[in-house]
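In the design runs reported in the main text, the only information available to the sequence generator was the tokenized backbone. The following block is the verbatim input for one such run; it is reproduced so that readers can re-run the procedure and compare outputs position by position.
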């Protein structure tokens, strides 16, 4: 049973959502809303941070100075995305060190795509085009998420993601216009990243029990399958510009439903990768643990400095 105050607070919350307005950190919100958002935003932050690894592996092997500086800027952007998102998650009441602990202990999830290896330079192209491309399709509607700090973080993130997607596409363009083996390398990268990038939208709607509630709360605006078919339609056109193909004989536009159809995806593999059995899960988490450990002195120094500043401010 709710007290009269809680009832009034719930009514206010419902009105804000119905009005397409925004909930801010100090506003009352149902516990389920707070929990769902904390989970979603922190998983998103973890994905940005873990997602730096497959590409960071290629910084030292980039084929030119120009490519190296572009890739460094891109990987650094992803670190920035992680930081905005951890800050947004913290406004819901869970401190950053708790969120980090959930990641490095293996308790928290992050996007399954980052547990696949980046095998060739062309993978930098396929990741930018497909992985950042899928992220954009997912995230543009999140710019209107009902929780203010999340929506605002997404606006900035999306601007940078579109640069990421274009740099990936441009890498593939250049390879596709190169020698036969370069073209083959680009095709091979697309073949490997196609299915995992489609799975980034999450399980099929029938198998995604929380979606309905997050849509009612106007955190999400479209279902997983809706976003997935939108993405597949977008890349089906773009791949023609590359003169390459998508590894999907069932890909077509259904005039009747107005939707793009694609092949069945391997959801057993998706579940296994999420559960920790992907080709790189152990390596990715170990790298994050090591980095966290190596950075301990920075956190300690920052905490001591903050304390000192606080004391000086109190004396003054
Ligand atoms: Fe990002
Ligand atoms: Fe990105």
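Verbatim output:
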């Amino acid at each position: 049973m709710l007290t009269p105050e809680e009832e009034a607070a719930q009514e206010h919350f419902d009105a804000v959502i119905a009005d397409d307005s925004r909930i801010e950190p100090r506003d009352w919100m149902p516990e389920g809303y707070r929990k769902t958002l904390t989970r979603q935003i922190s998983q998103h932050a973890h994905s940005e941070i873990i997602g730096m690894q497959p590409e960071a592996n290629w910084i030292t092997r980039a084929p030119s100075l120009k490519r190296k500086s572009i890739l460094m800027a891109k990987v650094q952007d992803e670190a920035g995305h992680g930081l905005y998102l951890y800050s947004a998650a913290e406004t819901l009441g869970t401190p950053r060190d708790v969120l980090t602990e959930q990641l490095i202990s293996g308790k928290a999830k992050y996007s399954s795509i980052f547990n696949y290896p980046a095998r060739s330079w062309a993978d930098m192209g396929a990741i930018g085009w497909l992985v950042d491309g899928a992220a954009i399709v997912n995230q543009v509607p999140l710019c209107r998420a009902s929780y203010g700090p999340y929506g605002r973080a997404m606006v900035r993130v999306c601007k940078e993601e579109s640069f990421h997607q274009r740099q990936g596409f441009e890498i593939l363009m250049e390879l596709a216009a190169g020698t036969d083996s370069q073209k083959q390398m680009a095709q091979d990268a697309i073949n490997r990243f196609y299915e995992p990038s489609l799975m980034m939208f999450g399980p099929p709607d029938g198998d995604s029990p929380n979606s309905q509630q997050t849509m009612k709360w106007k955190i999400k605006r479209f279902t997983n399958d809706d976003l997935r078919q939108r993405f597949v339609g977008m890349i089906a056109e773009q791949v023609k510009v590359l003169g390459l193909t998508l590894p999907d004989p069932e890909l077509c536009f259904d005039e009747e439903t107005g939707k793009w159809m694609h092949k069945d995806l391997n959801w057993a593999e998706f579940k296994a990768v999420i559960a920790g059995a992907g080709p790189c899960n152990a390596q990715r988490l170990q790298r994050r643990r090591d980095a966290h450990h190596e950075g301990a002195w920075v956190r300690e120094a920052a905490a001591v400095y903050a304390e000192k500043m606080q004391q000086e401010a109190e004396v003054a």
